[in-house]
Amino acid sequence: MSKVKIESKLPNLPTTIFTTMTQLANKHNAINLGQGFPDFEMDPVLIDLVTKAMKNGKNQYAHTYGFPGLRNVLAQKIETLYGRKVDAETEITITPGGTYAISNALTAVLREGDEVIYFEPCFDSYVPNIKVMGAKPIPIPLNFPDYSIPWDKVKAALNSNTRMIVINSPNNPTGSLLSNYDLEQLVEITSGTQILIMSDEVYEHLIFDGNKHLSILGHPELFERSFMAFSLGKVCHCTGWKIGYSVAPPYLMKEFRNHHQFNVFSVNTPMQVAMAEYLSNPQTYLQLAGLFQSKRDFFSKQIEGSFLSPLPSKGSYFQCFTFDDEVKCNSKEFAIDLVEKIGVATIPVSSFYQDETDCRVLRICFAKKDATLKEAAERIMNFRN
After folding, report:
1. Where would you tag: which of 4, 120, 258, 314 has the fewest CB atoms within 10 A of its CB?
2. In terms of domains, do 124 and 271 share one?
3. What CATH number does residue 316 fall under?
4. What is the pLDDT confidence band of residue 18, given thresholds at 50, 70 and 90?
């Protein structure tokens, strides 16, 4: 049988590093500190609320914009945290995950020939979603080792084709945060232009060491040209539920919803109903920073004196570590070594660059049970290259 000829919209894409490392982790029965998901149970109260919603008949299509009760709770959360009154009816849409909130925004506004500035290392979905729309991704490497933005290079990359700038804070994979200076620079280079902003803020509540999350929601001038993406799976320790939300001013949200209604139409109803009640208690998200900071600190303490040296993590599920010069292989090879030799899976940060820039850094997810982190740390401390 002959195959129908097609021209791939995303040719030559390699298997993602997450798939590769997860397969290796499964093969070697390794502790998986690579993928960003908790291995501890979510709050049973939320499970009970979902069960109640299903038993109460909340099992049919939700509104295409999202369950109104959940959108209202999120609007209140935004006003409390960031001082911005958003309209739950016209400025918030519930999505099947934060990644979808990003991809659907790009789908809504990008056209062939547009250029999109983004910063590397970066979450791996950005570039494929830019390319599939016929737009051109323009990478700007972050300064190593603090992973700050080199604004001189951003300004040099601007031209009449620049349609969007993608930002991510807290950053995945580096754990870095945007500063007030960064937002001032963003205002300066976008003011009076047609440049849009895609702000990935899925780790908004995981901010450490007394730092503050500087959301686009708290910056009126930037808000008016921005899509913002958030994750409820990260908030509620249920990444497999794939629930997030997008926030944008009405004229941008209208375009977002034009595509959303024909992509998924709506998101699973009982989970939305349950989350509306669950998130009405602010402590469900306000306590997250302390929880994950303690896990970050616990793991770092456990591996003091090992071949890994921590880089600052100011937020997210992740901390990056450089490794000793005695290790002669590159980051990807070393990550594979660790899985095969001691049964600990990490992610080489070189995989978050299109050209695989290798600064000899591994990303580790500390969103795990203390017992998991302790066992992984013991294996690391016993490692001999």
Report:
1. 4
2. yes
3. 3.90.1150.10
4. confident
Looking at the fold, whether 272 and 306 belong to one and the same domain comes out as: no
Helix (H) or strand (E) run with residue 314 in it: none
Contact 106, 129 (CB under 8 A): yes
Same domain, 163 and 257: yes
pLDDT exceeds 80 at position 213: yes
Three-state DSSP state, 168: strand
- Measured over the CA atoms of residue 164, residue 170, residue 173 and residue 176, the dihedral's sign is positive
For residue 80, being part of any structural domain is answered with yes
CA 50 to chain centroid, in Å, comes to 25
pLDDT at 244 over 80: yes
Q: How many domains is the chain partitioned into structurally?
A: 2
Hey, what amino acid is at 122? C
Question: pLDDT (tens digit, 9 = 90+) per residue, 124-146?
Answer: 999 999 999 999 999 999 999 99
Q: What is the mean pLDDT of the chain?
A: 96
Pair 217, 78: CB distance under 8 Å: yes
The domain of 72 spans: 57-281
- Which residue, 223, 250, 281, sits at the end of a domain? 281
Give long-range contacts, CB 8 A cutoff, 24+ apart: 82-90: 82/215, 82/217, 82/218, 83/218, 84/217, 84/218, 84/220, 84/223, 86/217, 86/247, 87/250, 89/65, 90/250, 90/253
Residue ranges in 112-179 assigned as alpha helix (H): 126-131, 151-157
In this prediction, residue 385 carries a pLDDT of 61
- Tell me, what's the pLDDT at 1? 67
The answer to the question of residue 341 being in a domain is yes
Residue 49 located in a structural domain: no
Whether residue 282 is preceded by a cis peptide bond, meaning omega within 30 degrees of 0, is: no
